[in-house]
Specification:
CATH class of chain A: Alpha Beta
Distance between the termini of chain A: 52 Å
Structural class of chain A: alpha/beta
Mean pLDDT of chain B: 97
Oligomer: heterodimer
CATH class of the largest domain in chain B: Alpha Beta
Helix content of chain A: 25-40%
Strand content of chain B: 15-25%
Number of strands of chain B: 15
CATH superfamily of the largest domain in chain B: Thiamin diphosphate (ThDP)-binding fold, Pyr/PP domains
Low-confidence stretches of chain B: none
Order of helices and strands of chain B: HEHEHEHEEEHEHEHEHHEEHEEHEHEH
Number of helices of chain B: 13
Largest sheet of chain B: 7 strands, mixed
Distance between the termini of chain B: 42 Å
Strand content of chain A: 15-25%
Amino acid sequence: MAHATGTKYLKGGILPHMWCSGCGIGTMLGALLRAFEELGYTTTDTVVVTGIGCTGKADDYMITNALHTTHGRALAYATGIKAYNPKLNVVAIMGDGDGVTIGGNHFIHACRRNIDLTAIILNNFNFGMTGGQVSGTTPPQRYTSTTAYGNPERDFDICALAESAGANYVARCTPYHGWEMKENMKEALTKKGFSVVEVVSPCPTHFGRHNEMKETPDMLHWLRDRAIAVEEYRRLPETERAERLAIGTLVSRDVPDFNTQYELVKARAQKG
Amino acid sequence: MQGNQAIAEGAIYAGARFYAGYPITPSSEIAEECSKKLPKLGGVYIQMEDEIASIAAVIGASLAGAKSFTATSGPGFSLMQENLGLAVMGEVPCVVVDVQRAGPSTGLATRPAQSDIMQIRWGRHGDQSVIALCPASVRECFTLTVTAFNFAERYRVPVVLMPDEIVGHMRENVEVPAPGELEVVDRKRPSGSPADYKPFKADEDGVAPLAAYGGEYVFHVSSSMHGLDGYSNNDPANAAWRVRQLHEKIDRHRDEIVLTKSFDTDDMDVLLVTLGATTRSGRAAAIEARRQGVRAGVLQLQTVWPFPDREVAELGRRAKMVVVPEMNYSGQVAGEVRKAVGPDMDLRRVNRYNGTIITPQDILAVMLGAR
């Protein structure tokens, strides 16, 4: 089989894309579209839902069904689509602002509800589109355009949050590991129930610039050096884990999803 | 039947098969009724994490082909505004019921008001227009809910149904219309080649056909300014066309959308302009006024937005005095009536904003008092 390119889902004549050089969004989108192709997704049976921000622009490049929504609310829109038509493949593509900062409430409830959606959250540690401000995933004491003297707050661990809130599938990837990302996305897309793929990504224009990773590849190398397969990560002594980033499939379980549970509700209602 | 229950029944009659909401007094009976009825009918009832998510899910379901709706009250309605703007921008048919209670803020959670009138029209940022209908009886809760869905479907626009708490919680005998008795409108579906489908290319009537996700027509809907194909478009000429089209599709059908009822207006000197529960006090006041020799008539606004300015102006020309009772301090309806009747009219306001109903005596005192 020829390698999947994913280009059949790309809108013609729109490249080059808008994202900065060194940004991970293009790699994320490429992996997602290749995953679509390898799974045989069609433009008619797929709905991409996006929010606002750099990552939220992804739908502009795609020819599947799409709904470009308001900031942080992509999962709530996606929930309405999937709850009404369970046959659709519904994928929400968000940044860390959309996904777990302004949209944190929708995120934990989508996990709890375990609705059969795939959430791709590109985490670049800051609000890229608006000029690199602090977000809910900016690590403590890091610098951004609104934390000039360091971030006084803690960051969310998106994957740990998803696991504890009840998602059926959780994976973490980086753009340095493109093939693995595509494989994780395929697992996420095919998993029944709520799936989360965190794509930890460089933002050389903003986050890198403020945090001593000024050159375009610096953040990518930073991710490369920190990333470690989750199986190996789990063998590390506690003291060595802090600086490492576990990548791969973190959670995979098969709790019944919302639509399956709702079918039971309908059956009970229709019997009575 | 209770008003809120009639709204749920009316929605189901109109074909609604998706409800997403978050409980709030005094609207919760609508959610409860839907949670019982929709699963039986194969529809979806889902309680979301907040009102922001509720309206978002309603819009998502509508684009997947459902007739969908939500119900709330002031605080929840405030939370819905941003996403309601997406329904305007993306031309997504849906219905939002705002059972009005007294504010500001948490206010008097169990008591009525008619103080969201301007929020319903202007609550969202940016240039936009919606349709709003206001029932005055339990029967109208049913029939105007059907009309709300019909307008939403016909014009691809969110429609707000705005009962006050009195009407929402009122109980009256209602004969539920038989299937087929009331007209039920479904959105126009595209019919041409899927490759040529443009979700924002309007027909002659100013409204574009809307496909559903999952069918053969693939389409984009965006909260950002977009072109005929639904993809982002920042061109100023395109933006001007979009904003104009969102207004014009309502403006040009204004006469079909504006619904009013007149009572005893053929020979009147005093015109009462009413909506919702104040229609009932207004009619009682008009009858009593006639008994006392003052010829009064009532114009009930069933459609509140677009505002029935011509209807008010036309009746206003035949009146010496116009009285506007409304359950708010600021005279939200009276301001619109003033625009319609001009600066010289003897326009009198009757306002209550303490969570209690305006009585016929309140209206009579203002109507019969000296200027």
